[in-house]
Fold:
Amino acid sequence: MAWMIVSDSSCEIRELAHPAPGVQFALVPFKIRVGEREYVDLATLNTQQMLQAMTDYNGASTTACPSPEEWAEYFLQADNVFAFTISSNLSGSYNAAMAARAMVLEEHPEKKIFVLDTLSCSGALAGAAELANKLIGENQTFDDICFALKKFAESTHILFALASFDNLAKNGRVSKVVGFIAGRLNMRVLGRRTQDGKIDFYFKTRGETRVLAKILEQMDEDGYDGVHPVLISECGNQTAAQLLHHGIEAKWPGAPVCIVPCSGLCSFYAQDQGIIITY
Structure:
């Protein structure tokens, strides 16, 4: 029996470390447009070059989600499909995947296709893909895996620690004056996902040390137990990622922590020096 695990490229992993028998894994890429240039969010993308182009460009950069046809291409390749998307309140990726599901099932009603709106991004999609792979390897039923994936998405926490506000200002999320002043004052902003999958920027401070301390405090408030995996995605900021790793290890000895570079789409949101923490 063939299984397909497919995610849009807001997922931070590019392959499954140990795919279960019969499991394929694939990514459907976002596109990031900066002026007249289009960057495709594949493993070969030079994210630092893309970020520099965004900084140099005076206008707002935009993203385009995968098309239904791109999703459908992978839905056709297996009997059982699990698809994961970034929050539907941040992108049209979920709607495109659902349109692809309807198209494919109309021609192949025997297929089983589950599309999960993670209401998140980054490590939430990576964790969902790894969980699906694990449960397939344990011979769990399709319906049981769907239930487990829904519960996983509901319980996942994600934080965004931002140091650059240029992209937010250009896209109208903050005023250009506020973005400029925040940058000059070495401000750091911490955001978290809301229950409906939006981003709430709820904490600001000066300096990286304070925002890292707040992350540890927030993890504690959220009930992190030191057992479940933590994924730290960094956008040109290995130093902060390593400091956070050490802080987690000190507070929760033995906690499984993985550090990865941000994908292109997540770099678009995190921006230069940003980090995303999923737990």
